[in-house]
Write a structure and sequence with these properties.
This protein is mainly beta. The protein has helices at 4-11, 46-51, 79-90, and strands at residues 2-3, 14-16, 22-23, 25-26, 36-40, 56-59, 72-75, 100-101, 106-107, 112-113, 118-119, 124-125, 130-131, 136-137, 142-143, 148-149, 154-155, 160-161, 166-167, 172-173, 178-179, 186-189, 192-195, 201-204, 209-210, 215-216, 223-226, 231-232, 237-238, 243-244, 249-250. Strands 8-11-14-17-20-25-28-31 form an eight-stranded parallel sheet, with no helix packed on it. A seven-stranded parallel sheet has the order 9-12-15-18-21-26-29, with no helix packed on it. Strand 22 (186-189) and strand 23 form a beta hairpin. The chain starts with a strand and ends in a 9-residue tail after the last strand.
């Protein structure tokens, strides 16, 4: 069991109040109980704090309150970051993917597999693809011809990566992602609209995370390039030949039409 004191040591924060207060879980301010920990990182959430029953609260220096009989405080410069670091201490472990190839998967004999690769049920990996060490290919994925995927990459079920695209190390692709579909290009011709050839690739560098059902189109020429540490929301469309700079965040735009 954790206590306010042990968590303060864990996150490198300054404890105010009882060190032996039990902490058995994490929760948002509005939902937390006496044996749970929450956080506040802005004065605009003071109203939620006033109504919260959280027994321990991580706070910034400008949001911290006074210790009471029913609340301890842990002061950190970045309360949200400290809290995020705690979440996995209380969460159930993520599912483990054992190395190996499911009997229903179709893997071309020419494919180069690294060590400890997991290939899930009904996945298809085409000719001359390369998969790095400790990478997970989820159920129902399609990995196209000559695709290269790095090490420690997690590809969730039903992801499609089309031919010759490049995916780096420690990348996360959530369900339904499509990498390397043709860019959208048509020009008027004598027989109507003619398709413009899309002969480039998609390149995804290390430590990128792509949300569910996002699409990243292959380039007309050269490459559509997602640079390292980029984070992309669900249902984002990245067009052909776009270059997304390092550590960028792309968020989906959602519209709701009235009747």
């Amino acid at each position: 069991m954790h206590t306010a004191g042990s968590i303060a040591e864990m996150v490198g924060g300054r404890l105010i109040g009882a060190a032996d207060r039990p902490v058995n879980g994490v929760a948002a301010l509005g939902d937390a109980g006496a044996d749970q920990i929450s956080y506040i990182n802005s004065k605009k959430y003071a109203g939620f704090l006033a109504e919260s029953k959280a027994g321990t609260v991580i706070a910034t220096p400008d949001t911290v309150g006074e210790a009471t009989a029913d609340r301890s405080w842990i002061v950190c410069d970045n309360a949200e970051s400290a809290f995020n670091g705690l979440v996995m201490q209380f969460a159930k472990p993520a599912p483990a993917y054992e190395p190996g190839i499911h009997p229903s998967a179709v893997v071309d004999p020419s494919v180069k597999l690294g060590r400890n690769v997991h290939i899930g049920a009904n996945a298809v990996i085409e000719r001359d693809a390369e998969i790095g060490d400790d990478t997970v290919i989820g159920a129902g994925c399609y990995i196209g011809h000559e695709v290269k995927i790095g090490c420690r990459t997690l590809i969730y079920p039903n992801v499609t990566i089309m031919y010759r695209c490049l995916v780096g190390n420690a990348v996360i692709l959530h369900p339904g992602v499509v990498i390397g579909a043709d860019g959208f290009g048509f020009v008027p011709g004598p027989n109507g609209l003619e398709k413009v050839p899309q002969v480039g690739i998609v390149r995804i560098d290390d430590d990128v995370e792509v949300g569910a059902n996002t699409t990243i189109d292959r380039a007309r020429f050269d490459q559509t390039w997602i640079k390292s540490n980029v984070k992309i929301d669900d249902q984002v469309m990245v067009a052909h030949n776009v270059v997304v700079g390092e550590s960028s965040i792309l968020v989906a735009q959602v519209g709701i039409a009235g009747s």
